[in-house]
Amino acid sequence: MYLFKTEINGWDSWGKLYQTISTFEPLIKSIFVKEKLPFTKIEHCTPGTNAVFKVGDYAIKIFAPKESGIDSTADFETESFAIHRANTLGVSVPKLLASGFIQDKYRFSYMIMDYINGTEINKLNKHLTYEEKVTIGHRLRLITDAINTPCGSFNGIDVIRDKDRQNRWEKYSEHFRKERLDYIHSHDFGEKVFVHGDLNGDNLLLTHDQKLYIIDFAEAVLAPAVYEHALIACELFRFDKAFMIGYFGDYNMDEITELVFNGILIHDFGGDVIEQYVGQLSEFDSLKKLRERLYWSIKHNQTNNYNH
Question: For residue 240, what are the domain limits?
């Protein structure tokens, strides 16, 4: 008799059930018994690709099984490695308490961590003062400086040369794609370090005592530091002057434009980020045009976010 009774057959089926508490309750209860942790009421957490729930003082993430159409094996291994590394470094991330898998109707990998009672930065953004944003930017820089350090290979991903990481650039013109590939294959982006890879507004939490926590390391890779910094500037900060000053210090416009330019060109989400935060696809027929639009976008946000 299976604990998990619902059929999973592709992403659509997984997408309809992965936030359903009643569907996962028997499975979660069994996992907590297995790990000798107290089982209490299950509550929802912010949804993602995987099933994430709050159980008392804990958060449990159950990774999508292969029947969902997503092979989450690499995500599980990457996140387990990343959180263990961050815990060892003393970085403010949830403490990993247990991880493994349970073989039921499907093979479910899982992780149990301390639940962080914080609010996502994207939900607080409009309510933060200039000074609070500067402070958050500075605190985040201390965190990323601690984790953006060399380490051994943990998932075998080459962010620059892996062909399956070019999908988000397919919608760009052939000329732009060729120019981009020629550039990233010939440019020296610097030493590869560990990066979180997806520091957006959902993955940065602020607690009531003003402590920052980063969560969700499934996109972690070895990459040049600009890979991390560019996404933070574009997607997390959206070039907001106060955040940018807190994180990058008293930066030069030309230098910060070049940093974002290089990081976005090699980022797995780069093609989408440009479209969402920099300009329309039709505007980018060359790298020169991308540089110009990035400079304008950054400068525009420096002068229009605040009156002082």
Answer: 118-304
pLDDT tens by residue, 21-30: 999 999 999 9
In a domain, 3, yes or no: no
Q: Which of 114, 130, 160 is the last residue of a domain?
A: 114
For 288-308, what is the mean pLDDT? 81
CATH number of the domain that residue 238 is part of: 3.90.1200.10
End of a domain among 97, 114, 131? 114
Tell me: do 69 and 133 sit in the same domain: no
Q: What is the mean pLDDT of residues 188-213?
A: 95
- For the beta sheet containing 118-120, the strands, ordered from the edge strand earlier in sequence to the opposite edge, are 118-120, 204-207, 212-214
Q: Estimate the crossing angle of helix 287-304 against helix 241-248, to 10 degrees.
A: 110
d(CA 116, CA 95): 9
Please name the residues in contact with 137: beta carbons below 8 A apart, sequence gap of 6 or more: 237, 242, 243, 244, 245, 246, 247, 248
pLDDT tens figures, 92-136: 999 999 999 999 999 999 999 999 999 999 999 889 999 999 999
Segments in 188-281 forming alpha helices (H): 225-231, 241-248, 253-266, 270-277
Angstrom CA distances, 273 to 169, 177, 206, 261, 268, stand at 11, 15, 24, 11, 10
Residue located via tokens 């309750």 = 25
Average model confidence (pLDDT) across the chain: 94
